[in-house]
Design goal:
This protein is mainly α. It has 3 domains: 134 residues, Tetratricopeptide repeat domain (Serine Threonine Protein Phosphatase 5, Tetratricopeptide repeat); 101 residues, Tetratricopeptide repeat domain (Serine Threonine Protein Phosphatase 5, Tetratricopeptide repeat); 73 residues, no CATH class. It is built from 19 helices and 3 strands. Helix 5 packs antiparallel against helix 6, helix 10 runs parallel beside helix 12 and helix 14 packs antiparallel against helix 15. The longest helix is centred in the N-terminal third of the chain and has 38 residues. It is elongated, with a radius of gyration of 34 Å.
């Protein structure tokens, strides 16, 4: 081996300590930079973060406000901190502070372009939370074609629903419809709201036109057929009422309990009351969950007398016994009982009645909000067509 080959093999041995020293020095430089940056973050920021983790929003707001003041005194950029602090103020209901903070942020020379849109979007939400809906609407309308256009229009849609401005809601929902997000349930319900208002005002042509528009958007909109049936009843077009109410069976049979009595009235108007009663009995036999026992008993009582009405209800309750059925059954059977038992049975029926009031309710399938009253539009989560059409045990 000549001398040149010897030094070629030996060179890495000498260079290894050099490379190690360079690596150690680079690591020290990086760690110093990290530590310097960590020390630059105000202590209040960590306090605020810790308070948020502990779900103490009051402490978080105070700590973050102190950080913002310190950064302002040091003339440092606080855009993100201002934005976060404003959201915290709004979340805590301190809307006046959120509004003032975001309005001040809009005057900053650094807040332009997408930043300006983002702050304006937050300010619009501040106004909405404070109940200043007109000012919020003005901001969101101005943002409709901006970088925050889609979320701004979604909030606008909620505002139009709260204001019951259904024409604007329909137009905006149609604009937002894209791909899988079609808003067909919402648009159909908006048309139904217009149709319902027209029906209250006895404007039957408009009521029918809007209801048909709802069906054109969503052919399974049971509410539209309810309105068409009710409109036909008021115009004494009983055959059309029977057809509209009867169509609900194919759309969603669970809603039949909501039109049972009106369907019977339509048959009665045609002189076919007994046929109408038979239709309702057939519905309960086919769909035992329908809440039609009271209607069937009352109409059977008129047509067939007390004994036959009691037999009809007894047969239906035995098919699917539940609290509501037992309550009705005790009511129709109490007159047949031994007088010595009547007071006890009446007491049991009262207990069942109180239990039904507590446990039988309509419930939103989306947020599980419970109510003794049926809503097409859930007051808790603002979803449409989510309430169970029959009261259920909760």
């Amino acid at each position: 081996m000549d001398s040149s080959d010897f030094w070629l093999w030996l060179a890495p041995v000498f260079l290894l300590p050099v490379f190690f020293a360079m690596g150690w020095f680079a690591a020290r430089v990086d760690m110093r930079a990290v530590l310097k940056q960590a020390k630059a973050v105000p202590v209040g920021f960590y306090k605020s973060l810790d308070a948020l983790v502990s779900r103490n929003s009051g402490s978080a707001v105070r700590a973050l406000a102190e950080v913002v003041d310190q950064q302002n005194d040091a003339q440092q950029s606080t855009y993100e901190l201002h934005l976060t602090l404003g959201k915290l103020y709004r979340q805590r209901g301190e809307n006046d502070k959120a509004i003032a903070l975001h309005q001040k942020l809009l005057t900053s020379p650094d807040v332009v372009g997408e930043r300006h849109d983002e702050v304006s979007f937050e300010l619009g939400q501040d106004f909405q939370a404070a109940g200043l809906v007109d000012r919020a609407e003005q901001i969101f309308v101005g943002l409709a074609q901006s970088s925050k256009g889609k979320p701004a229009r979604e909030i606008l849609l909620n505002i139009y629903q709260q204001d019951r401005d259904w024409e604007k809601a329909i137009a905006l929902a149609q604009e937002l419809s894209f791909g899988d997000q079609t808003y067909q349930f919402e648009i159909a319900q908006f048309y139904c709201e217009l149709a319902q208002a027209a029906l209250y005002q006895s404007d039957f042509d408009k009521a029918k036109a809007d209801a048909h528009q709802a069906l054109a958007v969503n052919r399974k909109c049971t509410r539209a057929n309810m309105i068409l049936g009710e409109t036909a009843l008021k115009q004494q077009d009983f055959q059309a009422a029977v057809e509209s109410f009867g169509a609900i069976e194919k759309q969603n049979h669970e809603y039949l309990s909501m039109v049972g009595e009106r369907l019977y009235d339509a048959y009665d108007g045609l002189g076919k009351a007994r046929e109408g009663l038979a239709v309702l009995v057939g519905y309960v036999q086919t769909f035992p969950q329908l809440d039609l026992l009271n209607v069937i008993y009352e109409k059977s009582l008129v047509l067939d007398g007390e004994q036959q009405a009691a037999e009809t209800i007894t047969d239906l309750v035995r098919r699917k016994p539940d609290l509501a059925g037992v309550y009705r059954l005790l009511g129709v059977q109490i007159s047949e009982l031994n007088p010595a038992w009547r007071s006890d049975v009446d007491m049991m029926r009262a207990v069942i009645g109180r239990q039904m009031q507590k446990s039988y309710m309509y419930r939103c399938r989306h947020c599980h909000f419970k109510s003794q009253v049926f809503f097409w539009h859930c007051p808790a989560c603002n979803k449409w067509e989510t309430f169970t059409p029959n009261r259920i045990e909760v």
